[in-house]
Design brief:
Elements lengths: L1 H43 L1 H12 L25 H5 L5 H13 L1 H9 L4 H17 L5 H11 L9 H11 L6 H7 L10 H4 L4 E6 L6 H11 L3 E5 L2 H13 L4 E4 L4 E2 L10 E5 L8 E7 L11 H10 L1 E9 L4 H9 L5 E5 L6 E3 L14 E4 L3 H13 L4 E4 L5 H12 L7 E4 L13 E4 L3 E5 L5 E5 L2 H8 L12 E5 L4 H10 L8 E3 L3 H10 L5 H11 L6 E3 L3 H9 L7 H8 L8 H15 L6 H8 L9 H21 L9 H20 L1 H7 L6 H15 L12 H22 L5 H41 L1
Parallel strand pairs: 1-7, 1-8, 2-5, 2-6, 3-5, 6-7, 9-16, 10-12, 10-13, 11-12, 13-16, 17-18
Antiparallel strand pairs: 3-4, 14-15
């Protein structure tokens, strides 16, 4: 009896000390957190003081707890062994289950847990794990065992479980213990402070505003060439190449830096005073006299906007020349106000006019030299180019996935006055980076696939900004056509185009931001068991931005992170691999990316011979469209190798050899594109049939001289069937065009639909016969 009293006394005493320790630990955590905040303020300077004041004025954003993945705890034996059992007695599992379920149902415990960061979802997950832990462990820690025994014996209160429950919850959800630190790391409200070198100088910002073909970039480049040192930041490799060549042709030594290429004009590799680069590659630590940021309106791009924000806030240049749409003027002024820098605006007018025609083209028979038909899918390009050449005319083809060399080759062919090719069929890839001699822009469609803020693909009517960017390619100042024209292929689209172009461009209101490798590494320090994809998700859910910024879409990053999650890589290397610019729609590119990462993880260099075996080099000229698409994918794989070679030089050593076969591959692709009509004819004809059906639909709905009377025949069922077939054809054409359905799957669906229709008809006939039989039986009964 005295032993029991002793044990009871010890348990009470231990519980008393545990509760005091928990309160002291909590208080000390708050104190240390506050002291680290003060230290951070002291290190960063006076600017950060205002930042933290603003932080306190608004409540922090609650985290998205659906992203919190519980950590699996190792089922190690307790360090206390069986001390709890020796001091008390073995626990009854059935009684324990009742006690734990009572604890779970107590509203007071749920509210107390919510105050510690456990919402209903996390509370439930933590309880399930805690209950499993207690019921399945052979021996529990002595203090927990004693507490549970007291409760089962009626000597303790059920709420005494709470500290142990929270201790377990913080073990499986480690982010609960460091939420304040995670919020500080993901605080993106003052990105200007990330660039101390730029803040240390007073920069002059000149905004060159105007539409396409207004000479705004020309004036900025003239100042760039006159400076002692300068950097040009453009959205495309083609634009960076153009400035690189112009600079060197003008006698100004200029280097080229893109994700896949480094070209130094100095034979010994010394950096020149000027550099032309893609915007993601610009240095924010190198001092320049002049910097040019082209196409500044892309600062609001959902995926790449962060690169323009970084360049604008971070470039160390005495003069920053910004080129873009007038719609960005007010926003850039507001952004620069936060850095204390004034903006000088130079406005420009279009050098040559363009007009919207009052009639649509309606037929490919009405095409003229200098016409450019703009499509928003490759299938439309294949279909239209085949129809044009069937009429005895040559056409050039340009779309986004073509290599830069092939695009330039096709542009040269179209621009050459001595070449018989006088028609261009292209996607909106012509909107930037290519100088084309176009007289008339013809929109084949005004709807294009787009990715919304949630990363979902949807079909949308093009915006005013997009329409102006494309229409502005007609009648460029340097071309032989001094006036441009814009129209549509289909009559019904023309009033829609006029409506789009009559609106002013929506003003830019936000700039993109993106988590850096350093920020993700700090997250990983606090959450070592989380996957990279999960780290980024939690970062975005906790991130705080002010009204001037948004966090860019990270779906592509997460797609790659999930793809290589099973491959053992350190965090920095994994992050670099996941920022690689690859086309995730190409299966061969994704497979190659995976093989590259796996080979890298084995610490085995990716040699030229290894790559040649992987891509089956040498490759033959394409025989059909499928072969051409594969060659484009191989070109992307070689681009990926070159991109990685500048980040991991020792693991991707054969850059020169890879670049050499890439040039050969570019020539092969150019040869295929020159013969694209032959490739289309050699391909499966069903590829273009849905598009032809769409063309028929246009003519049948009043765009041509066709009639729709067949839809309203004497029998309603017949008209309904015709209408259904037409709707199916329209839907099929859209699905095939968007790449969501293949011709083979379309045929299979048609077969299944026909089969279902036959079964439905058979069932209907059986019901009709049964109904007739019932009626006959009723009539017989009436006669009786």
């Amino acid at each position: 009896m005295s032993v029991n009293r002793c044990v009871c006394f010890i348990s009470r005493l231990q519980r008393h000390f545990n509760s005091r320790t928990a309160r002291i630990t909590t208080s000390s955590c708050h104190v240390s957190s506050g002291s680290s905040l003060l230290q951070g303020q002291h290190r960063s300077g006076t600017v950060v003081w205002s930042r933290d004041v603003s932080s306190n004025s608004s409540s922090p954003k609650p985290p998205d707890t659906s992203l919190f993945v519980p950590v699996s705890l190792k089922a190690d034996a307790s360090a206390d062994g069986g001390v709890g059992i020796e001091l008390t007695q073995p626990l009854d599992k059935n009684e324990l289950l009742k006690v734990l379920n009572r604890f779970y149902k107590r509203k007071e415990m749920q509210k107390l847990a919510a105050d510690s960061g456990l919402d209903a979802r996390l509370f439930h997950q933590a309880f399930i794990s805690f209950r499993k832990y207690i019921l399945e462990m052979t021996s529990l820690p002595a203090d927990l065992h004693i507490i549970l025994n007291d409760i089962c014996c009626g000597a303790g209160h059920i709420d005494d479980i709470y500290p142990y429950f929270m201790r377990h919850a913080k073990q499986i959800f480690p982010m609960l213990d460091c939420m304040d630190d995670l919020r500080k790391i993901s605080d993106l409200r003052v990105p200007a402070n990330w660039y101390p070198e730029a803040r240390a100088i007073q920069r002059k910002v000149i905004f060159h505003a105007g539409p396409t073909n207004s000479g705004k970039t020309y004036h900025a480049i003239q100042r760039y060439l006159a400076a002692k040192s300068g950097v040009y930041c453009g959205p495309l490799k083609l634009l960076a190449h153009e400035i690189f060549e112009k600079s060197n042709d003008a006698g100004v030594s200029c280097d080229l830096v893109t994700g896949e290429e480094r070209t130094f004009v100095d034979p010994e590799g010394r950096a020149a005073g000027h550099v032309a680069c893609t915007i993601e590659m610009c240095s924010v630590t190198t001092p320049y006299e002049v910097a040019v940021i082209d196409e500044i309106q892309m600062i609001r791009d959902p995926s790449r906007g962060w690169a323009w924000t970084r360049a604008l806030l971070g470039l160390c240049a005495e003069e920053i020349h910004v080129c873009g749409e007038p719609a960005a003027i007010d926003f850039i002024k507001e952004l620069m106000f936060s850095t204390g820098e004034e903006v000088e605006v130079h406005n420009y007018q279009r050098l040559t006019p363009f007009s919207i025609l009052d009639h649509a083209v309606e037929s490919l028979d009405n095409l003229r030299p200098g016409d450019c038909i703009v499509c928003f899918s490759k299938n439309d390009i294949y279909s239209i180019s085949r129809q044009i050449e069937a009429r005895g005319q040559e056409c050039a083809v340009i779309y986004g996935s073509l290599p830069p060399g092939t695009k330039l080759s096709q542009a040269k062919k179209f621009n050459d006055p001595d070449d018989p090719c006088k028609i261009l069929v292209a996607t909106d890839a012509i909107g930037m980076g290519l100088n084309l001699s176009i007289k008339r822009i013809i929109f084949n469609s005004l709807v294009k696939p787009n990715v919304n803020e949630k990363g979902e693909k949807q079909m949308e009517t093009i915006s005013t900004s997009q329409a102006l960017q494309i229409a502005g390619r007609a009648g460029r100042f340097s071309s032989k056509f001094k006036e441009g024209e814009v129209t549509t292929m289909h009559r019904d689209d023309l009033p829609v185009l006029k409506e789009i172009l009559s609106h002013s461009v929506d003003p830019i209101e936000t700039a993109g931001l993106h988590p850096t490798a350093e920020q993700i590494e700090m997250f990983a320090y606090h959450l070592p068991d989380a996957t990279l994809s999960n780290l980024v998700d939690i970062f975005v859910s906790l991130s705080q931005v002010d009204g001037l910024y948004f966090v860019c879409n990270i779906d592509d990053f997460k797609f790659l992170a999930d793809m290589i999650q099973h491959i053992p890589l350190n965090l920095r290397s994994r992050y670099v691999f996941c920022t690689a610019p690859i086309n995730k729609k190409q299966p061969f590119v994704c497979t190659s990316f995976l093989k590259f990462a796996r080979q890298f993880s084995r610490d085995e260099p990716l040699t030229f011979d290894w790559v040649c075996r992987h891509i089956s080099w040498p490759l033959a000229p394409p025989k059909n469209i499928k072969d051409l698409v594969h060659l484009e994918a191989v070109h992307d794989v070689l681009d990926l190798y070159l991109w990685l070679s500048y980040r991991f030089m020792d693991m991707f050593p054969d850059t020169a050899s890879i670049r050499e076969i890439q040039r050969e591959l570019d020539d092969i692709i150019q040869q295929g594109v020159r013969n694209i009509t032959r490739l289309i004819r050699a391909s499966d004809p069903t590829v273009t049939d849905p598009l032809q059906a769409q063309s028929n639909r246009h003519s049948q709905t009043g765009r041509g001289t066709g009639s729709t009377k067949f839809l309203t025949g004497s029998r309603g069922q017949r008209g309904q069937r015709a209408s259904g077939q037409m709707m199916d054809s329209s839907l099929a054409s859209r699905l095939v065009r968007d790449g969501l359905l293949t011709p083979d799957l379309l045929q299979q669906l048609q077969r299944e639909w026909s089969k279902d229709q036959k079964q439905d008809n058979s069932s209907q006939r059986a019901l009709d016969l049964e109904h007739q039989g019932n009626n006959k039986g009723k009539r017989k009964k009436k006669k009786k």
